[in-house]
Amino acid sequence: MSPSDDLRLRKRTLSEKSPASDETTSPSQSTSHGSMRTAGRGSKLLLVLVSLALFYFAYTRINSLQRPEALSESYALCSREGAQIYTLDPENPRAQCLVVHGSTFTSTGTLDQILSRWYETTPDQPHVRFLQPGQIVVPGLSDSHAHVLEYGATKQMPLEGTKSIAETVDRVRAYIEADPDIFGDKTKYVEGWGWDHTKWLLEEWPTYGALEADPIVAGRPVVLQSKDGHALWVSLAVLESISPLPDEVEGGVIVRDSFGKPTGVFLDNAQDLIIRPEPTYKQLQKRFAATVKDAHALGLTAVHDAGFNPMSLEFFRKEAQRTTLPIRIYGMKYFDETAAYWGDALEKIIRAGNNRLSVRSVKIFADGALRSGGAALYEPYTDNPETRGFMRISPETLNEVVPRFMKDGWQVNVHAIGDRANGVVLDAFEAALAKTNVTALRPRLEHAQILAQKDMARFGDLGVIASVQPTHAISDMWFAEDRLGPERVKGLYAFRSIIDHGARITLGSDFPVEDMNPLAGFYAAITRVSPDGTSPHGPGGWFPEQRMTREEALKGMTLDPAYASFTEDILGSITPGKLADFVVLSQDIMTVPAASVLSTRVIATVIDGKPVYGAI
């Protein structure tokens, strides 16, 4: 029974105690039974004290059970409103109750069914919690493409939302003035993240000159990362520290003025020229903690980190050895084509630290980003006919390393945004998969943003996973047609077409590039409108024929990410035998009006059967 049911039962037991007798006694009876009345009063007092003790025990027991740590080893969570638990288990897609023992689900079904099974297998009384009216349960939510430590770093000096270069510089100045250590030492690096020139009133690349024009900012080493992570804006001090610069960078761009002088902006592979001080281990821990705090509050139980460099790989390895990670991390090891091949030398990490850390995939960059004009296209950009974007890696190198990594047992995940980049990567996958088991390898295209019609069909045929980010669609829709033209833009974020061609989609956010909230991605996938209900095509959505269903979107945040990370046997659905990761939501996202989805609150986030956020 629920704590509230238990309390009512105990109160009823107290109120049903026999009242004192109303019969009148004779004087002789009074005399003869005086000692008995004295004993009776003592018994009544004792009864009251015992009752109060029982009530106090019940009260404290019930209140302690409301705290996450007071959950028993075995408990059930049920809805009084029927099957409000979305299990994502095809054998039993909705249930009234789930049962947890230790860290795993042991049963699902109706209340009668789980109580019957409980009494058959467990000597203890059932410990049942009930959802509040309107609440639902879904499996633990996963983000299939994110940047964990980078998100924590953005908390230092967030630059997102500025409307101009000047406003961005003002934020840098305010940050410097608010930190006495940095303000008093002009040699200390100043770092920030999130500027987006496509959202400025005048869309143009910034320059180091804008930083030098502010007397507080001038003369300092400043490194500012763009929102999409594909551009760095640096100060004159940083430029001078890395001079002389090469004329060109393969797979990248050093932005220059009309006189050929660097302006302070570096795109894609050119970013590697910028040397920054590495954060300390303590700083990395703070970044990780900041990310986890927000992730738990938003219902995330697992994150696929799209690009471990040597520093972050070592950090997570050490943290997993030191303690149990507070969230599940599936890491992709960054591939540097200028360094030695490591696929046959680096040991994979598979389900280490209580199933919390895996590193068994490689992340390769094929091209740049649409926002910065670096996505590799078959035809020139509509708004910049002088360029088709660029490949960050040659097709020859792709065709060499993709089969090699697959042979050495690594999942190959390739960042590809432009239609040309996606085509080149699919060519490499097709050649490499000709004589292999695709289910054992599960290659992924990270982003898969712009696809030519001829390439969409190949997803399903090859068994390649499309790792997509729905919130990118509602961010980019405002400038996409200007950049790509009215026909080519139809192949951008074409989720329905990809699914209809038989491909498996897995959903992510690319945080900190976009909002971490997985329900923002759910909303974008099913509506293709901005949070305010607008789009370039009106309130019906931007290319509404490409919308996903709610069932597909929920699966894309639960069971599909589990498959994409080789964990579908232990994660992704509320199925007996799987790890007990689940989320309690304030309302039913599967039935409420689409416009109401973003008002949904996370009531509790549970990992391994224990709440890490909220309470049940």
SSE map:
Blueprint: H1 3-15, H2 27-32, H3 34-65, E1 74-78, E2 85-86, E3 94-95, E4 97-101, E5 104-109, H4 111-121, E6 128-130, E7 136-139, E8 141-146, H5 148-154, H6 165-178, H7 180-183, E9 190-195, H8 208-212, E10 222-226, E11 231-234, H9 236-241, E12 252-256, E13 262-268, H10 281-297, E14 300-308, H11 310-322, E15 328-334, E16 349-351, H12 352-355, E17 357-365, H13 395-407, E18 411-416, H14 419-433, H15 438-441, E19 444-447, H16 453-462, E20 465-468, H17 470-476, H18 480-484, H19 495-500, E21 504-507, H20 518-527, H21 550-556, H22 559-564, E22 582-585, E23 602-607, E24 610-614
Parallel strand pairs: 1-6, 8-14, 9-10, 14-15, 15-17, 17-18, 18-19, 19-20, 20-21
Antiparallel strand pairs: 1-4, 2-3, 4-5, 7-22, 10-11, 11-13, 12-13, 22-23, 23-24
Keywords:
616 residues; five-stranded mixed sheet; 24 strands; 20% strand
Your description of this structure?
- The protein is an alpha/beta fold and 616 residues long.
- Helix 14 runs parallel beside helix 16 (453-462) and helix 17 crosses helix 20.
- The radius of gyration is 30 Å and the shape is globular.
The secondary structure category is: alpha/beta
Please tell me the overall pLDDT: 89
Widest sheet: strand ordering:
8-14-15-17-18-19-20-21
Count helical runs.
Answer: 22
Strand content: 15-25%
Rg over CA atoms, rounded to whole Å, is 30 Å
Weakly predicted, low-confidence segments: 1-41, 45-69
